[in-house]
Design a protein that fits this description.
The complex is a heterodimer. Chain A is of the alpha+beta class. Chain A has 25 helices and 22 strands. In chain A, helix 10 packs antiparallel against helix 25. Chain B is 69% helix and 1% strand. The chains are: A alpha+beta, B mainly alpha.
Chain lengths: 650, 366
């Protein structure tokens, strides 16, 4: 036993000795590594640093030309033009600030630009190039070339500027590009090596940015002993981004833009001295001139006014293709391609009518009477009324302790559903809304695409509001009241929609079978066979469609004056109160829109489709503070539909 | 023994060192992804968290269980390695099995199975048997079969690790000196034979290693660029996210095998030395468990596992500094990659387990 214990102890000691031996060997090998690192990182560091510098300057990325945007007939909407750009590599300069002052003497830089460059140089590794000035003119180029011997660390390179040949016509659809921002670099540090890269900041340019950007090329620079580049050797050629074809037809777009802007006024010659005088005395006109507006109008009261603001969406009801998408006022996307001046930015950003806002997808409007189809369809589907059911309108509807007025002070008398749509009787809809209930109205509206993002492809789309009990509880924390259902029955109160949602609704009503979705890219319309079914009975839809037709065809229809000859128009007008009318004002008599301040006038709406028998296009028109839907929005919609249909037929 | 005194036996230094390395590894991967929180950076963190969980699971298994499953584990991995030519994936080399969530490299955990089985076998030998040559024949098979299978995959780095790790356990167990010298002589004599067995690309790597400048754009390119990156880092480095060699893609495997180079470039000599010291902290923690333990199994396992961690560190850093040829070996906890990191977490789990139970004397009998 003692012997065995001794033996065990002996083995244990042997193992300990050997473990220590192995451990020492490991430490010895560890010291070899440390010695090696000392040799590399301390003793020979200088020579490796030179090699690393050489690597940095050897190698750079070349920005690929951006993919183009084309219209449905392959006309250029966004393309590239070649420019010369001046860049600096901070690591190669002795004193960046002195160098920039030197360059300032030749091409002119603002204090702000110089500071931006110095800040940029501090925030990124110094071997990365920084753009000093893109879009050099021939003259600047030759001046710089002469002085290039003294400008250390400066290079010229070819680059591309984004151009939008259509100017302001389609700015809200294409969006614009500009230089990369600090925020984008934060998200993707690789971007800082792509000198001169511009990224999409809004519109399709932003949505399709990855696809449009293409693949950067790689280039090696041969440098002479004084550090001047001698020649560029391409390792891989940049690959241009993908082209995208839009569903927009630029001719129809152009017509729609001008037709909306014109409204019911008359265009005047800008050169007239009376017009010039009006511009000088009117801040609103001046603000429009400052963003490049060339259209000035004379209204019915012979006042000089800016073009109408608002939105138009024209859609194919079968494919969902958006043929025209107008938001007025617009901006010129070409302004952003270089470095936008502070002044130009200020003019856009501080403009009273917000030209940077894309009203089509981010403008929120009460749908007003254009919502009545939704309420009528919900009521018919639920069976709370039949299409023969008639109600008496005496000009107002008493509910609880409140009177809800009809737009027709005298009242419409006894009207059925179709007549109520045609004459836009509010009292009829107050009553059927109550019978139907907000939940059913809410569900029908959602099925029509209201209160839902359309995902048409433009960033920052707003969803709007399609209220119900749950919505009110979650957002306001209070219960829904029946009075709120009454007012929702005429598309006012909480209800808020975007113009594109209204066009989708109209397209679905006209299509009748499929829940059509709005599309802006041609390739997306090729897969449009898979729209889900709309799932509304054909008898209900037929009644809605006939009612919309009678808005134009019946003797008392609100849009009876605007028949689309040869095609047949169906639609619905809407006039949305912006300012609440007080009891006193109502008793005194409501002031005509044209006599109110612009901001206080009603919004004018029209949704519709044509041809009535064989629908092709659906349209929604909103003229901000345009007065009434029937006199302002309906003729615009009619004219645009006519232009599109005639163009399609020829 | 109550649990508070057990807590004191947990190798805290090892756990903390590994935690620090995971954090440094995440930062390095973030830098290697051009300063973007890519999926791989997040995955590295998630995998480490899972690794710690696995380690704690293993830590509280009964130690006898480790002892008992060693043969089964070894046998299972040898079977999998034999099947690799049929079930493996990967370009050219059949090292990985596609498990859906990750690619699994069975040769990695095989290292641990070899150490466990060897330790079990050798710890059961009596004093009289140690001097006999015949008892080492099974030990040679325990090491030889899996390492030969891995070398044929071909995976030179992992194969050598199994070989050297296993031989270290035999050496520590008390192999008589005469056999040690005999063994060293055999290795020396077999070098030409091994050379004959190598694949052409392995030969090319070895030749390139001996003279990297001759082939500056081919196989030697990686090592030349790695040396430039490390060397240009100098004493304090170029700064976080400022390493031009890595940011400009001069280091092709900067997220995996060359992650040490990236750290060396951005944090310099100071950074590199810190990393090496932390790894040695782990190696010494593992080994010291064995020095303090009262049973032979624990002592042999800990020296074997310590050797494996050492080999990971030495092979990788020696490779990226140009001391050894490029064999394609990761630096666990810093490199992006699942299996090697998992292996190190399993080593952590076993180490905690051994450490808590280090006062048990009669493990081999039970």
């Amino acid at each position: 036993m003692a012997k065995k214990r001794k033996e065990i102890q002996e083995v244990a000691n042997q193992i300990s000795r050997r473990m220590i031996l192995v451990g020492s060997l490991q430490i010895g090998f560890g010291l070899v590594l440390i010695g090696r690192l000392y040799q590399l990182q301390i003793l020979h560091s200088d020579s490796y640093l030179k090699l690393s510098d050489k690597n940095q300057f050897d190698h750079r990325l070349v920005v690929a030309p951006r993919g183009r945007l084309l219209d449905s007939k392959n006309r250029l909407l966004a393309g590239n033009s070649e420019v010369f750009e001046l860049v600096v590599i901070p690591a190669r300069t002795k004193n960046l600030e002195m160098l920039l002052i030197e360059i300032d003497n030749i091409v002119g830089l603002s204090r702000e630009e110089i500071e931006d460059i110095i800040v940029a140089a501090k925030n990124q590794p110094d071997f990365i190039e920084i753009s000093i000035k893109s879009d050099l003119t021939q003259r600047e180029l030759s001046h710089l070339a002469i002085r290039s011997a003294v400008l250390e660390g400066v290079l010229f390179q070819k680059n591309f500027n984004r151009i939008y040949p259509q100017g302001k016509l389609l700015s809200h659809v294409t969006g614009y590009v500009s230089g990369i921002t600090a925020g984008e670099v934060e998200k993707n540090r690789k971007l800082q090596r792509l000198v001169g890269l511009k990224t999409g900041k809004s519109g399709l340019e932003k949505t399709l940015d990855d696809s449009l950007r293409g693949i950067a090329g790689k280039e090696r620079i041969e440098v002479n002993s004084r550090g001047k580049p001698v020649r560029f050797i391409s390792d891989s050629v940049p690959k241009q981004g993908r082209d995208h074809q839009l569903t927009i037809d630029i001719d129809i777009q152009s017509y729609a833009v001008n037709r909306l802007k014109l409204g019911n006024s008359e265009q005047v010659e800008m050169a007239q001295s009376s017009v010039q005088e009006a511009i000088n005395n009117n801040d609103e006109l001046k603000a429009h001139i400052n963003i490049g507006e060339t259209m000035i109008l004379k209204d019915a009261n012979s006042r000089y006014v800016p073009p109408e603001a608002g939105a138009v969406v024209l859609m194919d009801i079968h494919t969902g293709a958006v043929i025209a998408m107008v938001s007025s006022p617009a901006y010129d996307p070409n302004l952003f391609a270089g470095r936008i001046s502070n002044r130009a930015w200020h003019n856009l950003n501080e403009h009273p009518r917000v030209p940077l806002l894309n009203r089509v997808i981010a403008g929120l409007y009460s749908p007003g009477s254009t919502f009545k189809m939704v309420v009528y369809a919900a009521a018919l589907e639920a069976g709370v009324i039949s299409s023969d059911a008639a109600f008496k309108c005496k000009g107002f509807f008493e509910f609880g302790d409140r009177d809800f007025y009809c737009w027709q002070e005298k009242g419409h008398g006894v009207v059925n559903g179709r007549q109520a749509i045609a004459q836009s009787c509010d009292v009829y809809f107050y009553q059927i809304a109550l019978k139907t209930g907000i939940e059913r109205i809410h569900n029908m509206a959602k099925r029509m695409g209201l209160g839902k993002i359309t995902n048409v492809g433009i960033p920052d789309e707003k969803v709007g509001i399609m209220p119900n009990r749950e919505w009110k509880k979650n957002t306001r924390g209070t219960v829904w009241t029946p009075g709120e259902t009454v007012i929702a029955g005429i598309g006012q109160g909480f209800v808020l929609t975007t113009p594109i949602q209204l066009s989708v609704m109209t397209a679905r009503l006209a299509n009748g079978k499929k829940a059509v979705k709005a599309k802006l890219l041609s390739e997306a319309t090729k897969t449009s066979d898979d729209f889900p079914p709309l799932d509304i009975s054909s008898s209900v839809l037929r009644e809605i469609q006939r009612s919309m037709r009678s808005v134009i065809s019946s003797a008392r229809g609100t849009a009876r004056k605007y028949e689309l000859n040869g095609y047949g128009l169906a639609g619905k007008t809407g006039t949305v109160q912006v300012k609440r009318i007080s009891k006193a004002e109502r008793e005194e008599g409501i002031i005509d829109n044209i006599d109110r301040r612009w901001k206080d006038r009603d919004h004018a709406l029209f949704v519709g489709y044509a041809p009535y028998d064989k629908p092709k296009y659906a349209i929604s028109v909103i003229v901000e503070h345009g007065g009434s839907g029937s006199s302002m929005a309906a003729p615009i919609a009619r004219d645009i539909l006519q232009f599109a249909l005639e163009r399609h037929d020829t | 023994m109550n649990w508070t005194s057990r807590l004191l036996l947990i190798p805290w230094l090892m756990i903390i060192s590994m935690f620090i390395l995971v954090i440094i590894g995440t930062m390095a991967l973030y830098s290697a992804s051009d300063g973007v929180w890519t999926i791989s950076v997040k995955q590295h963190l998630i995998r480490s968290a899972i690794g710690f969980l696995i380690a704690f699971f293993i830590a509280f298994l009964p130690i006898n269980w480790l002892f008992r499953i060693s043969f089964l584990a070894w046998f299972a991995f040898v079977c999998v390695l034999m099947l690799m030519p049929f079930i493996g994936v990967g370009a050219g080399a059949t090292r990985w099995i596609d498990l859906g969530v990750m690619n699994f490299q069975p040769s990695e955990p095989t290292k641990i199975a070899v150490i466990l089985l060897l330790a079990r076998y050798l710890s059961l030998r009596t004093f009289d048997q140690i001097d006999k040559f015949s008892i080492y024949i099974p030990a040679i098979f325990i090491i030889g079969i899996p390492s030969a299978l891995v070398l044929r995959q071909p995976d030179l780095g992992t194969g050598l690790m199994i070989l050297v790790g296993g031989l270290a356990v035999i050496f520590v167990s008390g192999l008589p000196k005469k056999y040690v010298f005999l063994g060293l002589g055999t290795v020396g004599a077999s070098i030409p034979i091994i050379w004959g067995q190598l694949y052409d690309y392995q030969k090319a790597r070895l030749l390139t290693f001996l003279n990297p400048d001759k082939d500056i754009l081919g196989a030697g390119w990686q090592i030349t660029q790695s040396k430039i990156a490390l060397g240009s880092g100098g004493l304090f480095g170029k700064g976080f996210l400022q390493g031009s060699q890595s940011q400009l893609d001069y280091l092709p495997e900067k997220q995996t095998d060359f992650v040490f180079t990236l750290i060396g470039e951005e944090f310099g000599f100071v950074g590199s030395i810190t990393i090496i010291l932390i790894y040695f902290m782990i190696i010494l923690s593992v080994t010291s468990i064995g020095l303090k333990a009262k049973n032979r199994f624990t002592r042999l396992v800990s020296s074997g596992l310590g050797m494996i961690v050492f080999l990971y560190v030495f092979i990788n850093i020696a490779m990226v500094t140009g001391v050894l040829p490029v064999v394609g070996a990761p630096l666990p906890l810093l490199s992006y990659g699942g299996t090697a990191m998992l292996t190190v977490f399993v080593i952590l789990g076993i180490s905690i387990n051994l450490s808590i139970n280090r006062d048990k004397e009669d493990l081999e009998i039970s």
